[in-house]
Specification:
Elements: E1 10-15, E2 26-32, H1 46-57, E3 68-72, E4 80-85, H2 94-110, E5 115-119, H3 128-138, E6 159-164, H4 170-195, H5 203-214, E7 221-226, H6 228-234, H7 237-243, E8 251-257, E9 265-270, E10 272-276, H8 296-311, E11 316-326, E12 337-340, E13 346-349, H9 356-371, E14 375-380, H10 385-390, E15 395-399, H11 402-415, E16 419-421, H12 426-430, E17 439-440, H13 449-457, E18 466-470, H14 494-507
Parallel strand pairs: 1-6, 2-4, 2-5, 5-6, 9-11, 9-14, 10-11, 13-17, 14-18, 15-16
Antiparallel strand pairs: 3-4, 7-8, 8-11, 12-13, 15-18
The structure holds ligand BES and zinc ion (ZN) (2 copies).
């Protein structure tokens, strides 16, 4: 389950007067705002400008967002031109660019384009890095078990050259686009972990993947994996209770990335239920197969750590992934069981399907105790209720660290991985008190399901500032985003976390 780092798109940045097109399957990409013409590209041949202007006059090319027009130009230095519609100038942001690029991917594939030249000489405000992301995310295919005709198309786009205006700092632009290529590769990695069927994506396999992330040369990252025995020794009975029904041994994974100049230590904890049948509180059959995605939080954390080992920002980050399979069995935990978690709190397991909070409880309590982070953030496909609240358009964020929550929401705006805050008043904590134990793992009826789940988690972070992200709605099944495939996992969290951590590393004093 190795992440294919050699698949990363090659990035170049050049000034227009130094531009030379390579031989082969190249395409010049010219951005266009809605109804703002003529086209403005330093690299475009005059003859093509004339042809394209005729199409503009006929309103075949409009510049509307997510529309594109491809003109084959076999006799020029570039072999085709793609006019990339960005919509109205006032509404252009990174997400519009990402979606425009994602929408153009099918056209690049049809015309066998391998090397893109994006001309932003007249669009210095255009987020070129978002273009790189949109192309890389849009090109992801999940072909482990089935090849389709589209997958068999020859080499996808593997090189992108940004043509920048004379006054642009090339180095900074290049670094930004390089980061975008790496982050989209890692996002595709998280999508791949999640899409892989649960019979091939076990806790043990996730642990091996984590070790591979740390084993990269000069990673500044170490990997520790706790097995069943070690967790039993530590009293992690909330996590182990969930694992009882499965033949797959549970693993608690830690990736510890350190930087000598770090001012802060952040812990990221991702729910890694490799399959959630519900356990004895069995889920209905109709969509149960989707529960192979119940490890999307863990995938996001591991793949974020992979990015850090390559970018080396000045911040310490501990990535934690509690991983188990939740199954019904003669040995499975049963409703009414009472377990004592790592921090000594007792929990009445009223519903074995509310298992994510149980495994996170032990993982977070241990993490705050052992690593003493300045802030802990967990990410989990935790509640169906978040889909009722926000649909598939945003993840919910809750917690005690107001500053981190604001920064995460801002990082969500920058990356297109949206977050919306829900409240966490004291009343919700009352709703999680147990009858015969300190806590119950479910609230009364179905009220405020996303919030009561967070209120439960709060009991396991002590005084450490904390944020919780519920991605049950955004981890898969997202429709109408051109660079995502609605049939598969989205990799939500990798872009969000990376941006947040980089922002912190840059601003920490
Ligand atoms: N993994 C599920 C949450 C989930 C449900 C994600 C549907 C995506 C789609 C979680 O473990 C779960 O089953 N939660 C229960 C909690 C309830 C029993 C309090 C839920 O949301 O129904
Ligand atoms: Zn469940
Ligand atoms: Zn679950």
């Amino acid at each position: 389950m190795k992440m294919k780092t050699d698949m990363i798109t090659m990035i170049n940045v050049v000034k227009a007067d130094e531009l030379a097109f390579e031989d082969g399957e190249t395409c010049l990409v010219v951005p266009a705002y809605h109804r703002e013409f003529p086209l403005n590209s330093a690299a475009l041949a005059e003859e093509d400008e004339v042809i394209l202007q005729a199409l503009i006059d006929k309103e075949i090319i409009t510049g509307k967002a997510k529309t594109c027009y491809y003109l084959p130009t076999p006799s020029r230095a570039y072999k085709g031109v793609l006019v990339l519609g960005l919509g109205k100038r006032e509404t252009l942001d990174a997400e519009t660019m990402r979606r425009a690029a994602g929408a153009a991917v099918a056209t690049f594939g049809r015309h066998r384009v391998r090397h893109l030249y994006l001309d932003v000489t007249a669009f210095s405000e255009a987020p070129a890095a978002a273009f790189v992301e949109g192309v890389n995310l849009g090109q992801y295919v999940f072909d482990t078990y089935k090849k389709t005709e589209a997958d068999e198309a020859p080499t996808p786009v593997s090189e992108i050259t940004i043509i920048a205006a004379a006054d642009v700092a090339l180095e900074a632009l290049g670094a930004e686009c390089q980061t975008a290529a790496l982050v989209s590769l890692a996002t595709n990695g998280a999508r791949h972990f999640a899409n892989t069927a649960a019979n091939d994506m076990t806790p043990g396999i996730l642990a091996l993947a984590a070790e591979e992330i740390a084993n990269v040369e000069d990673s500044q990252c170490s990997c520790t994996v706790f097995d069943h025995e070690k967790m039993a020794e530590l009293g992690m009975n909330a996590l182990l209770g969930v694992a009882h029904g499965s033949e797959e041994p549970p693993k608690l994974i830690f990736l510890d990335y350190r930087h000598p100049d770090a001012k802060r230590t952040i812990a990221l904890v991702g729910k890694g239920v490799t399959f959630d049948s519900g356990g004895i509180s069995l889920k209905p059959g109709s969509k149960m197969h989707e529960m192979k995605y119940d490890m999307c939080g863990a995938a996001a954390v591991l793949c974020t750590m992979m990015v850090l080992t390559h970018l080396k920002p000045a911040i310490n980050v501990v990535g934690v992934a509690p991983t188990v399979m939740n199954m019904p069995d003669g040995k499975a935990q049963t409703p009414g069981d009472i377990v004592r978690a790592y921090n000594g709190k007792t929990i009445e397991v009223h519903n074995t399907d509310a298992e994510g909070r149980l495994i996170l409880a032990d993982a977070m309590a241990y993490t705050v105790d052992h690593y003493k982070p300045d802030c802990i953030v967990d990410i989990a496909t935790l509640t169906g209720a978040v889909i009722i609240a926000l649909g598939h358009c945003a993840a919910a964020v809750l917690g005690t660290d107001d500053a981190a929550i604001d920064q995460l929401i801002e990082a969500g705006r920058e990356t297109g991985e949206r977050l919306w805050r829900l409240p966490l008043w004291e009343e919700y904590e009352k709703m999680m008190e147990g009858n015969h134990a300190d806590l119950s793992n479910i609230g009364p009826d179905r009220e405020a399901g996303t919030v009561t789940a967070a209120a439960f988690l709060k009991q396991f972070v002590g005084d450490t500032p904390w944020a919780h992200i519920d991605i049950a709605g955004t981890a898969w099944g997202v429709k109408n985003v051109s660079y995502l495939n609605s049939k598969h996992a989205t990799g939500y969290g990798v872009r969000l976390f990376t941006r947040w951590l980089l922002n912190q590393a840059e601003t920490a004093t």
